[in-house]
Amino acid sequence: MDTMRDRFAPVVSRLLDEDPRVAVVLAEIGADGFRAAERRHPGRVINVGIREQLLVGAAAGLALTGLRPVVHTFASFLVERPFEQVKLDLGHQDAGAVLVSAAASYDWPAGGLTHMAPGDVALLDTLDGWTVHVPGHPDEAETLLRHAVAAGDDKVYVRLSVQANREGRAVDGKRFVPVREGRSGVVVAVGPMLDAVLAATEGLDMTVLYATTVRPFDGEGLRRATGAAGTDVVLVEPYLAGTSTAAATEALSDVPHRVLGLGVGRRELRRYGTVEQHTAAHGLDPRGLRERIGGFLDAGRRQAAARA
Fold it and tell me: What is the architecture of the domain spanning 177-307?
């Protein structure tokens, strides 16, 4: 199976052909994929070199002229390093752009901490007005890229990963997708976490929701699911653990509920190893998820019994 990033350049190259507003801004990374598109559209494919602050600033300038810039590099260089420009050049100036990252969380362990960004979505959460897409399959990445570019002049972040589920699902860029129904709680699996969540919750009487658009957070979808399944909620995210717990709590603010946020831990893993080893070390493999989700449900049952 190809990767989400394999789809990026072909999809956006077609969008360059289809829409004269689309422009692409790169900082060396990914430039080879746009050579042909650059020849066809020399004024709308721009490589600023290894200058990530300029990458975002140039995109904002293009947006202010009426173009729809698509900006691409590794997540650590797209959100973290130029965060001031994301905050001011895009946010403060109300300039729209589509930021498309690669190497999410720990996708390239050999690159070390400089190339890891598990806090990217949490960092964007400090700003207003961002849509965040987290596809879990290359087909979904293609769909959500098109949604992002077509989203007027909005600020959109598309988080691509080498981790992927075995099959893609129909996603609309808005709502959570019900995958499994149960009565003992709800698990929200974000993007590439779905297959592991389904394996971890096999035999548990739990509803599983699939989220590929996490901002805006589908609070209504979560409320509908908890109405039938109860208000024990587990969020399984492929980035910093707990990133969406506040959003889930806000959605359920008028009812008693418990929320468990699972994701990438804060502790730095200095023996970089493989993607699979990082996943297991953060407890995001099926075994680790089963232990923690099962323990969360057991604790809830004990609390209910103590109150009875």
Answer: 3-Layer(aba) Sandwich (3.40)
